[in-house]
Amino acid sequence: xxxxxxxxxxxSLDEPGGTRHHELARxxxxxxxxxxIITSPISYLTGKARxxxxxxxxxxxDGDLITILRVYTYPxxxxxxxxxxxxxxxxxxxxxxxxxxxKNVDLxxxxxxxxxxxxxxxxxxxIEHIPLLFEVRDLWPAFAVAVGVxxxxxxIKLSELLETFLYRHGDLVVVNSPGFIQYxxxxxxxxxxxxPNGTDTNMFTPEVxxxxxxRLHDLDAKFVVLYAGAHGLSNDLGIILQAARRLMPRKDIxxxxxxxxxxxxxxxxxxxxxxxxxxxxxxxxxKVEMPSALAAADAxxxxxxxxxxxxxxxxxxxxxxxxAGKPVILAIDGVIREVIENANAGIPVxxxxxxxxxxxxxxxxxxxxxxxxxxCQARVYVEKNFDRSILAAKxxxxxxxxxx
Length: 404
What we know:
By secondary structure, the protein is of the alpha/beta class. Helices cover 41% and strands 17% of the residues.
C-alpha cells in the first residue's frame, strides 16, 4: 500500500514539535507500506525556515519506504493572522501541484489543522479515484473562534462550510480524541473512528537518566516543574507565571519552559520585568532529546485556556509525560481530565486558576512519595491504553480496509 500524507505541520523525530505522524509513518513502513509525506520547510512550532533558502521542492528519505517532500510555503507563519492565512494557502497550492506528480498512490491521508490542506487531499484523492482518510486533530475553525483568533463573520462562515464539506466527503474521518466524535458526526461525517493521541513507550521510559540535562541547565537540587510544548495564545502560560510568583519564597522549586511559539518573547519580557528568578526558558529540542528532558523533571504541566471547546482535547504532551513516569499537573478540563483521574496519574486543577496550580506544585514538592506513586501509575496506565504501536496498528487496519 502506498499512502500519500498531506501535512504542513509535519515534524520528524530530529526536529522539535509534534511527531505523531512520523512515528505512525515509521510503523507503516515497518509493515512494508510506502509513505510519501508532503510538508512545509517552515517549522510550525517556531515559524522559522529549516534551511536558509526555501526551494520549490526538497526531497529527503527515511529508509527505503518513507519519502518526505518539503514544498514551497510562504515563510511568515507567525507574523499575524493574515500572514498565517497566506502561509496556509501557499502550502495548499504547492502541495497540490507536487501531489499530482506522486504516482501509484493507493490512499490519500489528509489532516487538519490547517484545514485548507484538507482540500488539497480531497482533490488529489478524487482526481486519482482513490480513498480519502481525513484526520481531525483539532476542531478548526471552532477553536480559533472560541479563543478570539478568528472574528471575521465571512471567514468563519467560509471555514465552517469547508469543514463540513471535508467531514462529509472523507471516506473515513479519524479523530485523535473521543471528545471530537459527536461534534464531527453532527456536521455530516458518515463514518468516524477514534485513533487517539498516544506515546512511544519505548522512547519515553522512567529508566532514562535525566542527570546530564539537570547539570547542563544548573537544575541540581531543584524540584523541576516542566512545561514542554508550544508557547501560544491557547496555552495560557501566563497562569504558570502567576503561580511561580506565588512560589518565589520556595528556592527549591523551579519552573522550566521548554519550547517556542509566538508568545514566548512576551513571556520572557514579563519574567524579566517581574524578576521571576524561579523560571527558566529553554529553546525547543528535537523529539529524540525529549526523553532526557522529561527524565530531569519532577512534575510536568499541561495547560490550556479555560475555553469550553478545549474540554474535547487529548493533548499529546500528556501521554509523553505519563510514559516518562511523571506526575501530571493538569489545568485542562474534559476528556483528558478523565484520563488523569482514571489513572490517578497527577493532580487536576481548574484552568485559569494560578492559586490552585501553585498548591498542586507544593503538594508534589512536599510529598516526593506521592509524586513517585502518581508517576508510576501514569506509566502503567499509558502502557495499557495509549501505546503508539498499538494505535498505529489500528490505523493501518483501517487503511487496509479502505484500500480493499
